[in-house]
Design brief:
Elements lengths: L1 H12 L3 E8 L4 E8 L3 H4 L4 E3 L5 H8 L3 E3 L2 H7 L1 H6 L5 E8 L4 E9 L9 H20 L11 E3 L14 H9 L3 E5 L5 E4 L1 H7 L3 H4 L4 H4 L6 H13 L3 E7 L3 E9 L4 E8 L10 E5 L11 H15 L3 H15 L4 E8 L2 E8 L3 H7 L2 E2 L7 H7 L3 E3 L2 H7 L3 H5 L3 E9 L2 E10 L7 H38 L10 E8 L10 E7 L4 E9 L4 H17 L4 H15 L5 E9 L4 E7 L5 E4 L2 E5 L19 E4 L5 E5 L11 H14 L5 H12 L9 E8 L5
Parallel strand pairs: 2-7
Antiparallel strand pairs: 1-2, 1-6, 2-3, 4-5, 5-6, 8-9, 8-12, 10-11, 10-13, 11-12, 14-15, 14-19, 15-16, 17-18, 18-19, 20-29, 21-22, 22-23, 23-24, 24-27, 25-26, 25-28, 28-29
């Protein structure tokens, strides 16, 4: 379903490549599920994109808009991390896939470097209609598509050719008679055709070249510059020219001409260059290409990984990043990340190991002779073992623990202090070249800094969560004739702590008080003040609502705080079937009863708490017969960028009525999903639902 839709979209829009991302709301990640027009290896670092990452597809989903990046300069200004990882010339569009009541993900399209920096109105229309068509397919799918472990690669719409897929013999004869050597690559970089004279020039039989990548089958082309030239041609669709030395002394010039079906390569012998950097290749790009010389592919990997590590927040994020991007980049299969915890190696994350092995390795002392991890961390020198035999010479028991065949033990040292050890392991023997060792050693320092920062964040977050949980009620009191349910959600980014609060206070057998409020700020000070406000409200509960708010305001004045507080206090009398409300600048509640249309309760609000302790608060009396549902909430639920808050509140009231038969916990899920379908919260959210039943005897 998605494959055909994407291929058709790429063809209709004139794009050179495209991909479809699906949103994993639980993990808050956009996962690339299908791609065409570029190799999977090129898109690998971007196959899983955190929703909060500063990249075009994430911005498109978070902000619900089409993101256009018309040039490399635009990319460098708006998305420096992406520009560092993809230093090629192209234009890009990313747009959300908005379905019925939810966002499915994003559509991403790429155009070659020759595309103008601005998109035409017609192109914008094509992109928008393509996104709507794909979203509609997802809406109508009997089973939503699953996110595969690896994105699927599908062929882009190939250019129609009169001779079909195979060259006729006449065409082959014509090419062979030309006085030059040539070969053809597919978009994956594999050789699909070469002339007989090319075999002689390269010195290798066609049987050993067809189906392989040149930099893999020809040792003298095994240079990261060569792969970079190929990537430039594939992504930018720019012609690329470079020279390379075929040992012992033959210089060859390669001219790459790309299109949607592959790359045609002309090869000619050329005199040795008089000037230029030493090494097996030097490049000169086409007139329209970037003037900056290409960098080494390993350096691109390091720059990308360094930028990605700056986006990690928690220790789990660091481990997942290593598993998702470092392992594939270096061909490793498994990893273990250990932290120095009171003289022991405490495993904080792993991938590719069974739990029995992890249990055996977890908690080893730093001076263990079972594995090199402790010694590596103690002396700060990485160790590389290309085979079990090498490992067994110094650590005889280590190879039998996991059955791995090669290892890289990287010390994680930040600011001169040992943080932990990162172990990359391989299922087959692996020789570590000097270049690879240097990059892994540099990468270890970046991982160490990210891990040290993440451990501090985790400790702070655990403290904040403990404080937040201690300040909010663990359970709401049970009262005959009144159901209640509540939910607190922190902002998607931050310390998971804020000033939003709620409470239900039992006064006697037939009366209760419900309160919800929001202290200004998202920090420990806001949470601490929130606890004091709750205590003041509890002390005044039972008095008329206006008096409760007035007394709480005077408590704030005595505390001499600069923070303001919004609050809604509801006195519920189940015997009289009425509610008396007073508001201190807080959003009015949503109201629904089966006999009445749903809506937002009309309320005369008073000033915020903390402005003036002598101000009064108007009272509102409203009937609440059995079956009435009240939804109290903080402004994080209804304040969505670009959408009127009153419109959102009325829409939520209709959802309250439409799902009135659901449990209150389920109703909260409905309201949250309707207000924030991407589960990305820019502000804390507290929701308190109340439903009246038959009056108590």
């Amino acid at each position: 379903m998605l494959d055909d839709a994407l291929a058709d979209t790429v063809r209709r829009t004139g794009a050179s490549a495209g991909g479809v991302y699906l949103l994993d709301e639980t993990a808050q990640v956009l996962a690339l599920v299908v791609i065409c027009g570029v190799p999977v290896e090129v898109a690998w670092p971007w196959r899983r994109v955190p929703l909060g990452a500063p990249v075009p597809v994430s911005d498109a989903v978070r902000e619900d808009r089409l993101v256009w990046v018309g040039s490399q300069d635009d990319m460098a200004r708006a998305y420096p991390r992406a520009a560092a990882s993809l230093p090629y010339r192209f234009a890009l569009a990313a747009t959300p896939l908005q379905g019925r009541g939810r966002c499915w993900g994003a559509l991403m399209l790429l155009w070659p470097a020759s595309h103008p920096a601005s998109a035409t109105a017609r192109e914008w229309g094509h992109i928008g209609s393509a996104a709507r068509r794909i979203a509609r397919l997802l809406d109508e799918a009997a089973v939503p598509p699953a996110v595969p472990e690896h994105p699927r690669l599908i062929p882009a719409g190939a250019v129609a050719r009169p001779h079909g897929g195979q060259l006729p013999q006449a065409a082959v004869d014509y090419i062979e008679r030309l006085p030059e050597e040539a070969l053809s690559l597919d978009l994956q970089g594999r050789i699909t055709f070469l002339t007989a004279s090319t075999e002689s020039l390269l010195g290798v039989d066609a049987g050993r070249l067809l189906g392989t990548r040149p930099w893999q089958s020809l040792p003298w082309l095994d240079d990261t510059h060569i792969e970079d030239h190929y990537r430039t041609a594939v992504i930018s669709r720019d012609p690329v020219t470079f020279t390379a030395l075929r040992p012992p002394d033959t210089w060859l010039e390669f001219q790459l001409y790309p299109d949607a079906s592959g790359i045609s390569v002309r090869i000619t012998a050329t005199p040795a260059p008089e000037h230029g950097p030493p090494g097996p290749s030097r490049a000169s790009r086409s007139t329209g290409a970037a003037s900056t010389p290409p960098q080494v592919g390993r350096l691109y990997q390091l720059v990308h990984l360094a930028a990605a590590l700056t986006e990690t927040v928690a220790v789990r994020d660091v481990v997942e990043l290593i598993a998702d991007q470092v392992l594939p980049a270096f061909g490793a299969d498994s990893l273990v990340v250990s932290a120095n915890d009171a003289g022991r190696l405490k495993i904080t994350g792993h991938h590719g190991y069974d739990q029995q092995t992890i249990d055996r390795l977890d908690g080893l002392p730093l001076d263990t002779d079972l594995t090199p991890a402790g010694q590596v961390l103690a002396d700060g020198i990485p160790s590389f073992f290309a085979s079990p035999r090498e490992m067994a010479r110094r650590y005889p028991r280590a190879p039998q623990i996991s059955g791995k065949q090669a290892w890289a033990f990287l010390p994680l040292v930040a600011s001169g202090q040992p943080v932990g050890c990162c172990i990359l392991s391989y299922d087959r023997p692996h020789d570590f070249g000097a270049d690879e060792r240097a990059v892994l050693t540099s990468l270890a320092g970046l991982i160490a800094q990210a891990l040290d920062r993440a451990r501090l964040y985790d400790a702070t977050r655990d403290l904040a969560r403990g404080l937040q949980q201690a300040l909010l009620p663990r359970n709401l009191p049970s009262l005959p004739g009144l159901e209640s349910a509540a939910r607190y959600l922190p902002a998607s980014r931050g310390m998971d702590i804020g000033g939003d609060f709620y409470d239900v206070i039992r006064i006697d057998a037939t009366t209760a008080a419900a309160v919800i409020g929001d202290v200004q700020g998202h920090n420990v000070s806001a949470a601490a003040l929130m606890g004091q406000v709750r205590t003041a409200i509890h002390a005044a509960a039972g008095a008329p609502p206006d008096q409760v708010l007035a007394r709480t305001g005077r408590v704030l004045a005595d505390l001499e705080t600069d923070l303001l507080v919004s609050c809604l206090y509801v006195h519920i009398d189940l015997a009289r079937q009425e509610a008396v409300l007073a508001s201190a600048g807080h959003p009015p509640p949503l109201l629904h009863h089966p006999a009445m249309p749903p809506g937002v309760m009309e309320l005369d609000p008073g000033p915020l708490l903390g402005i003036d302790p002598d101000l009064s608060y108007p009272l509102t009396v409203h009937p609440i017969p059995p079956g009435t549902t009240l939804a109290l909430y903080t402004d994080g639920l209804i304040e969505v960028p670009g959408i009127d808050a009153d419109q959102t509140a009325n829409s939520l009231a209709r959802q309250l009525a439409h799902h009135s038969g659901q449990s209150l916990d389920r109703l909260i899920d409905v309201l949250l999903h309707h207000a924030r379908p991407t589960a990305h919260y820019t502000d804390d959210i507290a929701v308190l639902l109340l439903r009246t039943g038959p009056p108590p005897p």
